[in-house]
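User: Can you fold this complex?
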Amino acid sequence: MSLETISPASMDTFSLSQPHTFNEFAESRSWEPGWLADYRHDCWEKFASLPKRILKDERWRFSPRTRFGFDQISGLSLPKESLTLAVPSLSDGLSIDLFDQLLLEEPHALTLLTKLMGPDLGADDYSFLTGAFAQTGFLLRANKGVAGVSPIIIEHQEPEAGQIAFHHNLIVLDANTEVTIVERFVGQANNPGGCISNLLKVQLGEGARLNRIVIQECSSKATIVQMENFNIGKNAYLNSTNLHLGGSQSRIESKGILKEPGAHFEYGSVFLGNEEQLFDQRTIQVHEAPHCTSNLLCKNALRKEAKSIFSGLIKVDEEAQHTDAYQTNRNLLLSSEAEADSLPGLEILANEVKCSHGATTSRIDPQELFYLHSRGISKVEAEKLIALGFLSESLLNIDHQETRDTALNALADAFSS
Amino acid sequence: MNSLKIENLQASIEDKAILHGLSLEIPKGEVHAIMGPNGSGKSTLAKVLSGHPSYKVDGGSATLDEENILGLEPDEISRLGLFLAFQYPMEVPGVTIANFIRAARNARLPEGEKVKAVDFYKELYEHMDDLGMDRKFTARSLNDGFSGGEKKRCEILQMSMLSPKYCILDETDSGLDIDALRVVSEGVNRMRNPDRGILVITHYQRLLEYIVPDYVHVMSEGKIVRTGGKELALELEERGYDWIKQEAVA
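Assistant: Here's the predicted assembly.
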C-alpha cells in the first residue's frame, strides 16, 4: 500500500472532462478499498453524463456560469499541502483526522461520506468531481456526551494557478456533544489563482451542538466552490458563520435540513466584494420535522464592479408544523457599478408556521454619511465605518473571542486594501 | 478676531432660497441663541455652516477665526473646530459609539498616528459619567434604538470628546423631557469657557433657562431681525413670534 498520489506532472493531458483523466487517476488509487473505488467511479459516471449545458437553469439564475468552468485546470493539487489541521488537545472521544490518513488506518470510518448527500443546489459538476477525485478532507467525530473546549482549526489551502483541490469532508457529532471549528481558506502567495472545491457533509445527533466559523481569505484570482449539507437531529443546534473575502468567483451552496423536532439552524454570511469579484450564494432551509427553527442572515457589501447573487429558499414540509423560519438578505452597494441580485423564496406546505423572508439592496444613506463626515471623519473613512458596521453584525455573534477578533480584523484589513 | 463670523450669508436648497443675507458674529467666550418660528431657516443655517452637500451657498461669507469655511468639506470644517449637535442624530447600525468617536479623534491626528486606547477610554468614561450615561453604551451602535434623550446625550458626549472651538446646537431641546434637558444643559454649560463660542438654536425659551445666553437673536425669513439680551427670549415666549414677523415685514 502506498500513499503515492497522482501528481499534476504525471498526466500530460490532464483534463477534467476526459475519461482518461479519471481512469488514470483511478488506476493510481487502485490500493483503495473497493467500495471507495466504486463510489469514485459512480461519481465520475454521473459527472460524465451531465448535460453539457442546460438552458435556463434556475439554479444558476443571474450567474455567469462560465466563470466556474474547468478549461484552465491542468492538474490536481497535492493533498498534503492542500488541507492541514491545528488541533488543540482533544478530549477522549473527540477526534479529527485527515481523509488520506484514515484511508490507511480506518477506511470504514469514511463510508458515511459515500452515503450522505451533498446540498444539490446546482453545482452538480463540482459535487460529482469532488466525489470522484477527492484525495483529502477531514473527518470530525465526537462520541456521545463529549465537548471540545478550544476550537479546532482547519486550513484549506488555495492551490497554485491551474490546479484544483477537491476536499471531501465529514462531521459526525453524536448525542449531546459540542464542538467548535474554524475553517480557514488561505490564499496562495506564490502563484495564485487555483480552485478549491469543498464538499462538507454534517450529521448532528440528538442535542449535539456545532459552532462552525468560516474565514475565507483566498487570493483575488481564486475560484472557490463550497458545498455543504447540514443534517440536524433532534434538539440539535448548528451555527455556521461565514466571512467571505477573497476569490475571483465563489459559489456557495448551503443546505440545512431540520430532520427532527427541536432542531435549530443558524446561518450567517458576510461578503465584502471588490473589483470584479463574483459571489454566488444559494441556500435552502428544509424543515422536515415540527417544532424546528431556522434563521439565516446573509449580508453583502459591494465595491467597484463586484457582483453578488443570493438565492434562498425556506421549504416547510407538510409535517413540519410549528416551524419558525427566517431568511434575510441585505446588500449594500458602495459603487454605481456594483450589482446585487436577490431571489428569496418560500415554499410552505404546513399551516401552523411562522416564516418570513426579506431582501433589501441599498446604498449608503447620504444623511448617515454627512453625520460621520461632519465629525471630521473623511468621506472614505466614513463609508468604510458604515460598511464595516453593516457587515460586522453577524461576526459579533461569534462566541470565541480570538476567532471573533480574527474575523473582524480580516474584514477591516480587506476594506483597507 | 477670534469669532465665528457670518456676513450677508445667502443659501438655498433645490433652487429655493432660504437664507437671505444673514449676518451674525459669535466671539469666543460667548453663548448666543437664535430663536425663531418654524421655517425661518434656523436649521438651514446650522447645516450650511457645517458644509451639508444639499445646500448651495449663493453669497456672503462665513469664517472661523478668520478662516473661510464656506465651500469646504464637512470633515474639513469639523477639523477646523466647528461642531454641530444635530436636531435628529442619525442611527448608524454596527458602528459603536466608541469606534465612531475614536475615528473622529484619529482624524484630528497627523497621518498614521492613533489615539492610545487606554487614555481614550479613560476620557470617554469620565465624560459619560458626567452625562449620566451607562458605560455599556460605548459598545452600542451609534444612536441605534436610542431614546430621544439618549441621542442628545450622545451628541453632547461627542462634543465634549472633540472639544471644538465653536459649537452649534440645533434644537437640542426637542424631544427631551425635563430631566434629560437638565442633564444635557449641564453638559453644555460645562463646556462654556473663554476659548469657545456657542450658538444655541431653539424654538422655545425653556432651554435658555438652563443654558443662559449672552445674546438672543431672532430669526425670520432667513435673516436676523432682532438682537437683544436674554430677556428677549422671555418677551418672545410671552408675545409669540407674530409681532416680530409683522415688524420685519413693516
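The longest strand of chain A covers residues 163-173. Chain A has a mean pLDDT of 94.
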